[in-house]
Amino acid sequence: RSSWLLLAPLLTPPVPVITTPPCSLCPEGAHRFQWIRNLVPEFGISSSHVKVLSSPAEFYELLKVQIKAAKQRVVMASLYLGTGLLEQELVDCLEETLEKSLQAKGSPDLRVSILLDYTRGSRGRKNSRTMLIPLLQRFPEQVRVSLFHTPNLRGLLRLLIPERFNETIGLQHIKVYLFDDNVILSGANLSDLYFTNRQDRYVLLRDSPEIADFFTELVDAIGDVSLQLQQDDTVQMMEGMVHPYQGDKVAYCEIANQRVMEVINSARTRQELLHAKTFHSSQPGSSLLSQQGSQASGSLKPEPDTWIYPLIQMKPFGIQIDEMVTETLLTEAERDARIYLTTGYFNLTQAYMDLILGTRAEYRILLASPEVNGFFGAKGVAGAIPAAYVYIEHQFYSEVCYLQQQERVQLQEYSRSGWTFHAKGLWLYLAGSDLPCLTLIGSPNFGYRSVHRDLEAQVAIVTENKALQQQLHQEQEQLYLCSGVVSTSTFEQPNRYVKLWVKLVTPLIKNFF
Q1: pTM value?
Q2: Which of 208, 82, 73, 89 is nearest to 144 (CA)?
Q3: Measuring CA to CA, which of 109, 195, 287, 345 is 20 to 30 A from 189?
Q4: Do 215 and 350 belong together in one domain?
Q5: Which residues share a beta bridge with 127?
C-alpha cells in the first residue's frame, strides 16, 4: 500500500508539449516520407542488406554468431542482461572473442561497450552487474559498462522507493545490438525469455557502416552521461560530468541533450553531404572518368531502394523526435490507408488515441491478451497489472463503439499457449497497396512511459523494394495470425473481470507502466 503513496510526488502528469508536425507528406510512393530527413539523418541502403527475423531462437543464435565474428566493435544497449544459463553463454561468447582479440598480433582492436539501465540492472543480489564484472576485470582496456540512471529519481524519492518500484520513474529502454557494421534493432532485452518464448520483433541491417557508426555514437553519448561500472561493483561518473541524481538536474539534462543532439545533427550533416555528392556524381554532366575510377576501385554501391531513419525519444532531455514523427504519420495517413500497430502493453497516450479515433486510415491494433502479458501471474501488486491493461483496453474499445468506428478501428488480442507477447511497432500500407512501404521497429510502446519517462529509439524503414515489402508483410501476418478480434463479448468473459480497486487505482498509476 505504502509503495503507491511514495509515487505521490509524480502522480500529477506534466503538461504535454504540443508539437507542430514538421510538414505534410509528399504525394509519390515511398518518397513521400523524405520529410523525416528534416529531423534526423537519412541512411539510403540496398534492401538486400535488410533481413527480418521472426523468432526468439533465431534472434539468440544471431547474437552469438555476430559476437563471435566481431573484429572491431560490439555495442549492446538493453534494459538489462539476465542472469540465467543462456545469458551466461552470451557473456562467454564475449569473453572468447575478446580473448582472441587479445592474442592477436599488435594491440587488440576489439572494443565492447554495453549500456544498461541502472535500476533494472542492479535488481537482486545476482544481477546484470555481477554478470559483467568478470569481463571488466579480465579486459579493463577493452570493455565499458555504462548504467543509465534517470535524473528524475533523486533525493527523498530515491531513498524511499523500494527496488522494482524505483523502475517506474524512468529507464534506459533502448535495444540496439551491433557488431562491426551489422546492426540489430529490436524491442527484445538480453534475457532468456526473449531468447525462447517471448515474442518480439527483430531486424538485421547488414554491412551498414554509417548506421552502425550512428548507433555507436548514440550509445557512447548516453554512456558518457551514465554511471560507469567498476571492477569492484561500484559505480562512478566520468571525470567532470554532472551526476544524474546528486548533481543539478537542469545542468545534467542540458548536457545530455547537447551530447545526443550533437550525434543526431552531425550524422544528419554527414548524410546530407553524402547525398549531395551522390546526387551530383549521378548527373549526366558528371565526370565519366571519376565514375570509371569508382567502378575500378569497387566502391560504386547499388542505388538505394530503402531508407533508414533513426527516431529518438528522450523526453527527460527535451528530445521528442520519435513522438513528432509518429504523430505526423498517424495524422497524415490517408483514407483507405491501413496501419497495423502493435504493442505488448496497450496504454496509448491521449494524443495517439485521439489521432487514431479522429483520422481517416484503417487501424488494426494488436495487443497482448491477459494470459500473454509479461506481468501475468506476477506476485503482489504487479499481478494486478494485466487487469489494469484490460480496463484500459475496455475503455478504448467503448470509445471506438461510441464513435461507431468498429469497422475502421479494430482491436486484436495476441494469444499463444506458453508464450508471452512483447512485439511493438507499426506497418503502413498506402491506399490500394497490399504490401507495407514503411515500418517502425525498436523499443517504444506508444504509451505514456515511452513518450515521457524512458530513453527510447526505433527506426523507420521505408522501402520501394517488393521483396523487402513482402518480408515485412509476412512478419505482420505471422504476428496477427495468432490473434482474435476483440468484441463486446470479449469483456464478458470471466478472465476479464476487473476488481473495483484496480479500476480506481488505474487512472492514478497508468503513467508508470
Answers
A1: 0.91
A2: 73
A3: 109
A4: no
A5: none
